[in-house]
């Protein structure tokens, strides 16, 4: 029996392994929130797989009492998550507008031109670098998902299909690649070896170059009950203070920060080489660090309160769905995002509550959501079935989606968003 268990990776003797902080190495003793067991959020199910075994992993999030990094253990490897990826950034018009505005701003602020190089880490389908190309600025993408990278190459964007870290950065530098701008939008939280990733950015940067990182702000996640942004591909949940500490350890100094509305509230952090960067530290850096300190982000009791907030939000979502079904209403979903799969699995919402969901990404059509097995259709399905409620799973895009769904008012249909609280939109 022990041999079989060992082959399956099970431990037959001894105490459970003690989880340690991926940044400072301290033992993790404190729970931030526990969302139970959930499948990888982008592992969509084909019809022929519906009766097969599906892997579920813990969504138990810890907080380090030494550096205050909120983190999920590496239950699923990055190779398993990102080698074949179902998320294509270009299907969101608002995200494309965000990317274009970013490129305009970087060119103007840092004087990028034909002699510059912009390198994007986790460049996806070229959604952002295409706007640098339009301006005649050389680019390079780094994207581990081959299926997504192919779309970028079709747009004329050179792309390395690799995972980024210290080792790849060193290879790139040996090959003569150094960047004026290294950018990472919604990738810093996705890497389990965050130290290697930060070290790699330092190596890749020219002496006077700039790093920009965008990631969801932990302060906003907690304020908005955004527990659904927790899933296996998000290994870290970052406050500004902790992010600065991680970058500083790798020789990168933060000199500016912007607060953004994206993903329910994100930060755009600007950093440079600590020993040669030319930019003075701005007041926004000092102000946000002070605000986080006053909000208690250096005290454990601040983090302990979040788990009960999550449970209360779950009860409110289920109460709405139960009441609506009791009244004979039909409910469908809009979107098949990672955050939606966390929410549905944690709350136990299946096709008994949502008849189906729709998504603009053809890659997902005809498949089923992981865990809940809710079927995914093209958006036109909503017009065919005329539901009473459309449950918007990517609530961070609610304004864009609500506009797309304006036609449901023809039959009295209404949109619903679950986060930060259940809200029926007029």
From TrEMBL:
Tell me where in this chain the Methyltransferase putative zinc binding domain is found: 21-82
Specify the C-methyltransferase domain's residue ranges. Answer: 261-420
One Pfam entry for this protein is Methyltransf_14
Q: Which CDD domains match?
A: AdoMet_MTases
Source species, domain of life: Bacteria
Q: Which InterPro entries match?
A: Methyltransf_Zn-bd_dom_put (IPR013630), Methyltransf_Zn-bd_dom_put_sf (IPR038576), MeTrfase_14 (IPR013691), SAM-dependent_MTases_sf (IPR029063)
The record, for SUPFAM superfamilies, names: S-adenosyl-L-methionine-dependent methyltransferases (SSF53335)
Q: Does the keyword Transferase apply?
A: yes
List where this protein forms a coiled coil. Answer: none
**Keywords attached to this entry:** Methyltransferase, Transferase
Which GO terms fall under biological process for this protein? methylation
Task: Return the protein name.
Answer: Methyltransferase domain-containing protein
């Amino acid at each position: 029996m022990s041999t079989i268990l060992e082959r399956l990776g099970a431990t037959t003797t001894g105490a459970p392994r003690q989880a340690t902080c991926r940044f400072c190495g301290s033992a993790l003793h404190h729970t931030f929130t526990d969302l139970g067991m959930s499948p990888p959020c982008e592992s969509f199910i084909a019809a022929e797989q519906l009766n097969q075994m599906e892997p579920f992993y813990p969504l138990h999030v810890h907080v380090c009492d030494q550096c205050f990094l909120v983190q999920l253990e590496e239950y699923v490897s990055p190779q398993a998550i990102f080698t074949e990826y179902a998320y294509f950034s270009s299907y969101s018009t608002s995200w494309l507008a965000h990317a274009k505005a970013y490129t305009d701003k970087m060119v103007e602020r840092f004087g990028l031109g034909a002699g510059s190089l912009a390198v994007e880490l986790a460049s996806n389908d070229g959604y952002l670098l295409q706007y640098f190309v339009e301006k005649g600025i050389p680019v390079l993408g780094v994207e581990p998902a081959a299926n997504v990278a192919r779309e970028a190459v079709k747009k004329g964007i050179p792309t390395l299909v690799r995972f980024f870290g210290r080792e790849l950065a060193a290879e790139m530098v040996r090959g003569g690649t150094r960047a004026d701008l290294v950018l990472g939008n919604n990738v810093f939280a996705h890497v389990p070896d965050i130290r290697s990733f930060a070290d790699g950015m330092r190596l890749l940067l020219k002496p006077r170059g700039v790093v920009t990182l965008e990631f969801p702000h932990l302060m906003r996640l907690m304020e908005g009950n955004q527990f659904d942004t927790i899933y296996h591909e998000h290994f870290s949940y970052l406050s500004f203070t902790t992010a600065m500490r991680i970058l500083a350890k790798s020789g990168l100094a933060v000199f500016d920060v912007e607060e953004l509305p994206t993903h329910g509230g994100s930060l755009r952090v600007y950093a440079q080489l600590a020993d040669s960067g030319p930019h003075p530290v701005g007041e926004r850096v000092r102000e946000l660090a002070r605000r986080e300190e006053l909000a208690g982000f250096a005290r454990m009791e601040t983090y302990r309160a979040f788990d009960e907030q999550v449970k209360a939000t779950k009860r409110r979502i289920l109460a709405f769905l139960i009441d609506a079904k009791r009244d004979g209403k039909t409910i469908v979903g809009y979107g098949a995002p990672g955050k939606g799969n966390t929410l549905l699995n944690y709350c136990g919402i299946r096709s008994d509550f949502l008849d189906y969901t729709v998504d603009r990404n053809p890659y997902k059509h005809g498949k089923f959501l992981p865990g809940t097995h809710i079927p995914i259709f093209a958006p036109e399905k909503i017009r065919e079935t005329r539901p009473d409620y459309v449950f918007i799973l990517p609530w961070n895009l609610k304004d864009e989606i609500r506009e797309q769904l304006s036609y449901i008012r023809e039959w009295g249909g209404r949109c619903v968003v679950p986060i930060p609280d259940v809200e029926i939109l007029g």
